Amino acid sequence: MPIEGPTEAPAVGVVLAGGLARRMGGGDKTMRTIAGRPILDLIVERLRPQCDALILNANGDPMRFAGFGLPVVADSVADFPGPLAGVLAALDWTANNLPDNNWVVSVAGDCPFLPRDLVAGLQQARRKEGAELAVAASNERTHPVIGLWDVKLRHALRQALVEEEIRKIDRWTARYRVAAVNWPTDPIDPFFNVNTVDDWGEAERAAAIALK
Fold first, then answer.
1. Nearest Cα to 55, choosing from 93, 88, 27, 19?
2. How many whole angstroms separate alpha carbon 112 and alpha carbon 30?
3. Residue 33 three-state SS
4. pTM of the full predicted structure?
5. Nearest C-alpha neighbor of 181 from the set 147, 145, 132, 149
6. Smallest Cα–Cα separation from 101: which of 170, 180, 156, 154?
7. Phi then psi for 105, rounded to 5 degrees?
């Protein structure tokens, strides 16, 4: 997907790693290795240059991530309600720590091959379509966890999570104008995610292409 012109505004990136990884037998998927490197290391390498700041959404002892040099922000909504809680934590962190930044870009903590023009592509599409939010897509499928979020929507998101108990991202974003941005999947899908044990072998094969 060609990117035209500069991104519109600075953005804070957040790696969402607050889930329980049940299909992987528990633990931190971001700490598992591909081509000898933790997934989180691969994500940081690709996302950090695109953002004004980068944070990690994770629960439990933050010291296990100390070697990555990222602020670790836990969910503020109890009982692991899903990725929307991580997005909310990032929106609140940005409002409190970088109030001049109006945008947060979220990515899944199990996507090691993210595009290097992710933030620019999401910003450009949102601007062109006059949308309030933007999400990534590939192979005719949207990836709602990988998206661009407006910090000013944080109070509405908290209400949806706490008072309405909304958990699905699509259910909440349906209230807004959302631009879907499609990325090519040749030679690999940049949003391939290591979600199950069976994905591991495929990830190692893809790494030989993506990490050249």
1. 93
2. 9
3. strand
4. 0.90
5. 147
6. 154
7. -110, 120
Q: Which residue reads 């933030």 in tokens?
A: 119
Distance CA 34, CA 40 (A): 10
Residue 166, both tokens:
């909304």
Order of strands, edge to edge, in the sheet holding 178-183?
Answer: 72-73, 53-57, 11-16, 103-108, 141-150, 133-138, 178-183
Find out whether 124 and 50 touch, Cβ atoms under 8 Å: no
Tell me the two tokens of residue 48.
Answer: 């950090």
Task: State both tokens at 191.
Answer: 């949003």
E-assigned strands of the chain?
A: 11-16, 33-34, 37-38, 53-57, 72-73, 103-108, 133-138, 141-150, 178-183
Cis amide bond preceding 187, omega within 30? yes
Tell me the one-letter amino acid at 107: V
Q: pLDDT by residue for the chain (212 residues), tens digit each?
A: 434 444 456 899 999 997 654 444 456 889 998 889 999 999 999 999 999 999 999 999 999 999 999 999 999 998 878 999 999 999 999 999 999 999 999 999 999 999 999 999 999 999 999 999 999 999 989 999 999 999 999 999 999 999 999 999 999 999 999 999 999 998 899 999 887 777 767 777 777 777 76
DSSP state for residue 43 in the 8-state scheme: H
